[in-house]
């Protein structure tokens, strides 16, 4: 029984692992911390899995556990030898996809998002993942109106950073 | 174009950047131990319980002569028994409250609810510490008073004190007790402050959104 549960869990997690990676990318800034957070989220997901009911989508459920772990449960990684920041845009992508200005804008944007506080990051993350305000408000435990207001403030904040 | 829309476009393109973990990697992760703050909080609360149980048990397990002296000081063995029963009842009550508050912590709640459950657990531990510090304070003061009264040598010495000396003597003892209690309190403030710093910050941020 336990084996079956483990098997179904790993199968689902393997399929949706990018959600966890994305949370880690947002909340950590080096490779070791990324791995530590990934592991903690995996453990938390696994601990909560027996209570996971099929009526919620596995991915939706993952967003909640992943963010909760990143915002609340995770103690910052102790390993800090490699503190070199990786800001998404750096290690990837063919240049032809973007013109210089867009590339530059994205770089600044990623940097700006990294500088937001934990709660703001969570809002941006859910927004980028195409979640509606109902789900955002339920995940964070705030009202829908407040989620909207905060999101607009973040947009303004980012706009100012980009066009000073 | 809206800045976030630009980001969104790029955000979803970059899924392939991540190192894909195999199921074997994931299985290995399941064997690892969690290092979440809830777990740390749990270990600290167990340590607290044990620490104060040991402190409470010192009179009980100490040598017979010490107990006899205690009984002589209190003049009544029932008082000691009653106090012991009371202190264990309080410990049991706290164990129950802690257990209940840990059970209420769920990673699948909303972020705010989860933070509140953890802060609630921390509150239970705080009350436990406050209770113990008050008890420690009271028993030190009472103990000191009874020792002075019942110890013939000491009370003889004190009789020779001038008024000024007596005030200084009481002042020093009172100061020592207060310092002891304050140091323990600061230690707890630091311990929990460090552990829950981020949680407190994020909780405040969430509360701020509601204003």
Automatic annotation (TrEMBL), chain A:
Gene Ontology terms: biological process: DNA-templated transcription initiation
GO cellular component: DNA-directed RNA polymerase complex
Transmembrane segments: none
Entry superkingdom: Bacteria
RNA polymerase sigma factor 70 region 4 type domain boundaries: 109-158
Keywords from the UniProt entry: DNA-directed RNA polymerase, Sigma factor, Transcription, Transcription regulation
Keyword Transcription among record annotations: yes
Pfam families: Sigma70_r2, Sigma70_r4_2
Gene3D superfamilies, A to Z: 1.10.1740.10, Winged helix-like DNA-binding domain superfamily/Winged helix DNA-binding domain
Domain RNA polymerase sigma-70 region: start-end pairs: 12-80
UniProt xrefs under SUPFAM superfamilies: Sigma2 domain of RNA polymerase sigma factors (SSF88946), Sigma3 and sigma4 domains of RNA polymerase sigma factors (SSF88659)
GO molecular function: DNA binding; sigma factor activity
Protein's UniProt keywords contain Transcription regulation: yes
InterPro entries assigned: RNA_pol_sigma-70-like, RNA_pol_sigma-70_dom, RNA_pol_sigma70_r2, RNA_pol_sigma70_r4_t2, RNA_pol_sigma_r2, RNA_pol_sigma_r3/r4-like, WH-like_DNA-bd_sf
Family, similarity comment: Belongs to the sigma-70 factor family. ECF subfamily.
NCBIfam families (UniProt xref): sigma70-ECF (TIGR02937)
Protein's name in the database: DNA-directed RNA polymerase sigma-70 factor
UniProt source species: Yeosuana aromativorans
From TrEMBL, chain B:
UniProt entry tagged with the keyword Transmembrane helix: yes
Domain of life: Bacteria
Swiss-Prot/TrEMBL keywords: Membrane, Transmembrane, Transmembrane helix
Annotated TM spans: 40-59, 79-99, 125-146, 166-188
Protein's UniProt name: Beta-carotene 15,15'-monooxygenase
